[in-house]
Amino acid sequence: MNQYVAELARIGAKEKRLIIGLMSGTSLDGLDIALCEVSGSGPDTSVKVKQFMTIPFGQEFKEVVKSVFSKRTVDLENICLLHPWIAEQHASMILEALNAWGVHPSEIDLIASHGQTIYHAPKRLHGRKEFGNGTLQLGDGDHLAVKTGIITISDFRQKHIAAGGEGAPLAVYGDYFIFRKPGENRIMLNIGGIANFTFLPADQDMTRIFSTDTGPGNTLMDAFARFQFNRSYDENAAIARQGTVNEVYLKALKDDPFFKQAFPKTTGPELFNLKYGEKALLNANISAINHVDTMATLNRFTADTIADAIKETLSDQETYSVYSSGGGIHNPLLMEQLQAQLPHCRFYTTSELEINPDAKEAVLFALLANETVAGGNTLFGTGSNDIPAVTMGKISFPG
Fold first, then answer.
1. Distance set, CA 250 to CA 239, 242, 270 (Å)
2. φ, ψ for residue 203 (rounded to 5)?
3. What is the mean pLDDT of residues 40-46?
4. Confidence band, pLDDT 50/70/90 cuts, at residue 376
5. Most buried of 5, 42, 308, 370, CB within 10 angstroms?
6. Nearest alpha-carbon partner for 148 in 107, 115, 105
């Protein structure tokens, strides 16, 4: 038997596994690195986050990735070169984090790498009859494994698509494993570049579990902050609070076929970008709108589309606990607007559930890797609500 296959079997049989979860989102802020102690699998999974840090990306990294990010036409040579290069950058960051924590790579059982999404192309967006859903993440798992010396599991989204999904949201699996609670309707809301949520019913009926993207999270606000204010984001909603929502512009922003499509669904910056905002201005026949009003309207656009999705898919006759995570939780105006629009919901962050809200996505990928080696037996509602009951991730050995 190959020594690494034997090692994988040994890891899967361990009572506890040390797994590094990685997440790099569409904001391109940095690499989230979560060191997780995981035991069990499926609904019996438990996780403890032992360490967490975000290592910011340098300007060179950001510019190189932006050269191919969410663009329909790119230099194929760049794609070819970036796939290993991004992995090598991530590997260096992992080793930096381990050194800071005083942990030797030999102590780590697995790396779970999401990679860097550069294009998300569900059929509902590309509309080409001859093709199905597609998504592409760069950051090759083999390079990560060789450079760190740690078995790496990566490229999770492809199996989801192969099994009939759209490659997202994947949070639903980990959400169900560790966050469900009998007697409490929970909404696990993540506001990253794109906003999504998982519904975990109080009655624990797996066929009622529901997960979907809702539309933009921070992506439009961040893009506008960079373009007009030379800021990476609207810190504490300082810009948006100076403005007034332009209702005509807001209506035009919400007038897109995506919002008329049935749930569940996925999307990305391929749709929600600066050109989207400019097109909405033209459709609204608005010749000029000041920048602070634009930011206020974009903030409200995110709040409205999240709230609308929750109201459309869940009964307002029940009460819900919303546990939020992602960069959007640090936007106080956005959170205030969500609470105002969803009076039947109680709002918390995942800190209440002992998971750092900034670390949550990295932790969830660690759980997917854990399921790859130690689980795979959860039927998960037999694929109801477009949630394929599959084990995801490709395995890369260090040697």
1. 17, 17, 20
2. -85, 0
3. 95
4. confident
5. 370
6. 105
SS3 content of the chain, % helix, strand, coil (to 5): 45, 20, 35
Classify 163 as helix, strand or coil: coil
pLDDT for residue 151: 98
pLDDT at 387: 86
Q: Where are the beta strands (DSSP E) in the chain?
A: 16-24, 30-39, 46-56, 110-121, 134-138, 152-154, 186-191, 194-200, 210-216, 320-325, 345-349, 394-396
User: DSSP of 273-320, one letter per residue?
Assistant: SHHHHHHHHHHTT-S---HHHHHHHHHHHHHHHHHHHHHHHS-TTS-E
Note if the pTM is more than 0.90.
yes
Q: Which own/partner pairs from 2-6 qualify as long-range (CB within 8 Å, at least 24 positions apart)?
A: 2/397, 4/151, 4/397, 4/398, 4/399
How far apart, in whole angstroms, are the C-alpha atoms of residue 136 and residue 229? Answer: 30
Q: Domains of the chain by range and CATH?
A: 3-168+359-396 (3.30.420.40), 171-353 (3.30.420.40)
Residue 91 has which token pair?
């590997």
The pair of structure tokens assigned to 351 is 């800190």
Q: Which tokens in the block code for residue 356?
A: 């750092």
Q: What's the token pair of residue 95?
A: 């080793």
How far, rounded to the nearest angstrom, does the alpha carbon of residue 301 sit from its chain's CA centroid?
19
Distance CA(8)–CA(66), nearest Å, equals 36
Rg of the Cα trace of the chain?
21
Q: Name every residue whose Cβ is closer than 8 Å to that of residue 135 and which is 6 or more positions away in sequence.
A: 117, 119, 120, 121, 122, 157, 158, 161, 166, 167, 168
Distance CA 50, CA 48 (A): 6
Structure tokens at 25: 């989102």
Distance CA 210, CA 201 (A): 9
Written as six digits, the tokens of 101 are 């924590």
Q: In the block, which residue shows the tokens 């990294």?
A: 61
Give the alpha-carbon dihedral of 362, 157, 274, 77, to 10 degrees.
110
